[in-house]
Design brief:
Blueprint: E1 5-7, E2 10-12, E3 18-23, H1 26-31, E4 33-39, E5 46-51, E6 57-59, E7 67-72, E8 77-82, E9 91-99, E10 103-106, E11 110-114
Parallel strand pairs: 2-11
Antiparallel strand pairs: 1-3, 3-8, 4-5, 4-9, 5-6, 7-8, 9-10, 9-11
């Protein structure tokens, strides 16, 4: 059973930065693909970034050059560093783990609000 616990959301002004953390198991990080999705009000959940077990990175076009996904296997944590935040980045951000099947596990979500 994979568990995902997000933290780090909050309110930030446009142009600011936030770092989200997803605490999970070592197994999830080294064997499966772990990523971040987001869902804004009235919109579908969308992929933001993900990192495979082999370290391959995938980003949504809208965040390329601004967001960076990384992992620390010593802390069993996946991070999403978000820079140059825009109001359109406002959403609930969810950590996701994909296992063969496919089987998706989600965290509880953390709110990110970009507003002046």
């Amino acid at each position: 059973q994979v568990q995902l616990v997000e933290s780090g959301g909050g309110l930030v002004q446009p142009g600011g930065s936030l770092r989200l953390s997803c605490a999970t198991s070592r197994r999830a990080i080294v064997i499966y693909t772990v990523g971040w999705y987001r869902q804004a009000p009235g919109k579908q959940r969308e992929l933001v970034a993900q990192i495979s077990s082999g370290g391959d990175l995938t980003y949504a076009e809208s965040v390329k050059g601004r967001f960076t996904i990384s992992r620390d296997v010593t802390k069993n944590t996946v991070y999403l560093q978000m820079n140059s935040l825009k109001p359109e980045d406002t959403a609930v951000y969810y950590c996701n783990c994909q296992r063969p099947g496919p089987v998706n596990t989600w965290g509880q979500g953390t709110q990110v609000t970009v507003s002046s």
